[in-house]
Amino acid sequence: MDVDGAPKVFDEDEDAARREERERLKTEKRKVRQGYRKLITDTDVFGTHEATLDAKLLVMSADLGVQKSKQLRMGQGGFDENEYIAKLINKMGGYEIDNDQQAMDWTKVGKIAMRWSRKVPTMDFMLGPVAVEHKTRTISQRTRVVRDPKAMRKPQELREEDIARQENETTKNVLQINTIMEGLERKVNLFKLVINPESFGQTVENIFYLSFLVRDGKASITEVDMADPSLGEDEAWVPAEGANIQPMVELTEVPDAEDYQGGLLKKQMVLEIDMATWRHLIEVYDIRETMIPTRVSREMQEKGKWYG
């Protein structure tokens, strides 16, 4: 049945015409697809220069399409907003002549719209607060900090005589270690010599002072097997597995030019030690007393003077 309630008569010719139209549209779409595939195959490029020109043509074609779409007009005369609003007001029965207005009948527009939309009207909700409090930005002015020159302390200057004093302290401590080693009748364990169980800082200083004696050739450090100390005398000696190897230090005669010409080589090493290793060495070698006496530091007994 149609909209007016009359029975709808089935027309075979009309149905056949619709099927024919659908087949025609399918054929046209198939031809268009084939044309696109052929165009893609014909425009395929293999060189970089041709690919650049192809991309440039594609960009120009896209820009031209955008311009054409902006100039697209609906129908012959185009879409006029003022004419549309005037016809809508006329349809609703409203007009304005010499400020004499007649109310528009919105029911007429509603009935026309209901032909195209039969949805049940729903309830809308307003999201967000009804009133929004405007936040004002507070600008805080920073005050410049002005320091009192009287309260500022001038850094202490290090003068040339202070540096000379420090050098004299280094020389004195190096000579002290040399004197201690002269009083020993045999080699001494390196760690038992330099480690001060009371001070980690002075342990590091002792290693530093001993390095001057090694540098000048007045002392040597060798690896010795404590099970047979004589094995360490041979430079080609290879420690056996499980040997008790310890670093031993002793005073030596200062080598001359002939010794170096005979094949004597200077060797240098870096000894790294931290507090954990320092504590571990104290326990391993059972070091309870220091062979190098603990030095008493003196700090600024006189104003402007530095002492080591």
Automatic annotation (TrEMBL):
<dbReference type="GO" id="GO:0006281">
    <property type="term" value="P:DNA repair"/>
</dbReference>
<keyword id="KW-0539">Nucleus</keyword>
<protein>
    <recommendedName>
        <fullName>Non-structural maintenance of chromosomes element 4</fullName>
    </recommendedName>
</protein>
<dbReference type="InterPro" id="IPR029225">
    <property type="entry name" value="Nse4_Nse3-bd"/>
</dbReference>
<comment type="subunit">
    <text>Component of the SMC5-SMC6 complex.</text>
</comment>
<keyword id="KW-0234">DNA repair</keyword>
<dbReference type="Pfam" id="PF15412">
    <property type="entry name" value="Nse4-Nse3_bdg"/>
</dbReference>
<dbReference type="InterPro" id="IPR027786">
    <property type="entry name" value="Nse4/EID"/>
</dbReference>
<comment type="similarity">
    <text>Belongs to the NSE4 family.</text>
</comment>
<feature type="region of interest" description="Disordered">
    <location>
        <begin position="1"/>
        <end position="23"/>
    </location>
</feature>
<comment type="function">
    <text>Component of the SMC5-SMC6 complex, that promotes sister chromatid alignment after DNA damage and facilitates double-stranded DNA breaks (DSBs) repair via homologous recombination between sister chromatids.</text>
</comment>
<keyword id="KW-0233">DNA recombination</keyword>
<dbReference type="GO" id="GO:0006310">
    <property type="term" value="P:DNA recombination"/>
</dbReference>
<dbReference type="InterPro" id="IPR014854">
    <property type="entry name" value="Nse4_C"/>
</dbReference>
<dbReference type="GO" id="GO:0005634">
    <property type="term" value="C:nucleus"/>
</dbReference>
<dbReference type="Pfam" id="PF08743">
    <property type="entry name" value="Nse4_C"/>
</dbReference>
<keyword id="KW-0227">DNA damage</keyword>
<feature type="domain" description="Non-structural maintenance of chromosome element 4 C-terminal">
    <location>
        <begin position="187"/>
        <end position="292"/>
    </location>
</feature>
<feature type="domain" description="Nse4/EID protein Nse3/MAGE-binding">
    <location>
        <begin position="54"/>
        <end position="100"/>
    </location>
</feature>
<dbReference type="GO" id="GO:0030915">
    <property type="term" value="C:Smc5-Smc6 complex"/>
</dbReference>
